[in-house]
Design a protein that fits this description.
A hairpin with a 6-residue loop joins β2 and β3. The protein has about 140 residues and is α+β, with helices and mostly antiparallel strands. Helices cover about 40% and strands about 25% of the residues.
Amino acid sequence: MEDNSKYLIVDKSVLPDVFLKVMKAKMLIASEGISVSEAVLTAGISRSAFYKYRDNIFPLSDNTKGKTVIIAMNLSHVQGLLSTVLNTIAEFGANILTINQTIPINGLANITISLETSESCDIDVLIKNLKSESGVLGAKVIARE
């Protein structure tokens, strides 16, 4: 049986030290804002080893994030409605990345919200719940990553 998987999950205890040191250097750069030279010196690896492996080593949590979804909605110009929509999105465990809203014309505002969803977030159920809110005149997914 041929395995065409691009990624593997491997216990770090069986990896060569260089991979763990590259991960340590990446974390130092991200968390402390130090230069690559300082990070590799602290981690105990060469710059060439760091550059060779840095784009291919990630902690599991970074590699399992949800997908980005863009939702377009038409909302009545009602005080607190956008807040209700945002609370509904938060209840589904989605992280709001951007919100774009037009000025309400004739009592109607167009909203576009981009979200980062968790693996457990059911977008179809979220859209159904958003549509059921009083004042939400339409909601649909316009893009998914």
